[in-house]
Amino acid sequence: MKFKWIGVDCGSADHPMNTIIRNWHPKLFAEAEKKLIAKYGQAWDQMFPQEEYYQVMHLKLFPKKLVHAENLGGDIEHLKNKRAWIGCFPLKGLELESAMCRIVAWAP
To answer: Which of 7, 44, 49, 108 is in Cβ range 3.0-4.6 Å of 33 for a Cys bridge?
Structure first.
């Protein structure tokens, strides 16, 4: 079985304003939208419609069996654009949408 992974050394490749954070922090969203309008003349949802951009890394990639692992650190830069064997060892849990994991890679 083949898996395709994207590893990122940040929380997610989704823009925070295209996630639930825009609802949790309405002042920050208003500030971001104001900057967007000033620079590009369009509101956030005009440039990034929610039905297309909301949590893209989760909702669009997972159905295509493309996994992204967030907050990877260590020597991730040494694997950039390379193939590797990946070991993912999640903490045990029930009905999880995500889980903390130990992720290791072995280069061929």
So the answer is: 44
Cβ atoms 71, 101 nearer than 8 A: no
User: Is the whole-model pTM more than 0.85?
Assistant: no
Among residues 64, 54, 63, 74, the alpha carbon closest in space to that of 12 is found at 54
Number of domains in the chain: 1
- Taking the CA atoms of residue 36, residue 42, residue 48 and residue 49 in that order, the dihedral angle to the nearest 10 degrees is 140
What is the C-alpha to C-alpha distance for residues 52 and 24, in angstroms, rounded to an integer?
A: 20
Q: Output the CA angle 13-18-23, nearest 5 degrees.
A: 130
- What is the span of the domain harbouring residue 34? 4-106
Structure tokens at 103: 């992720």
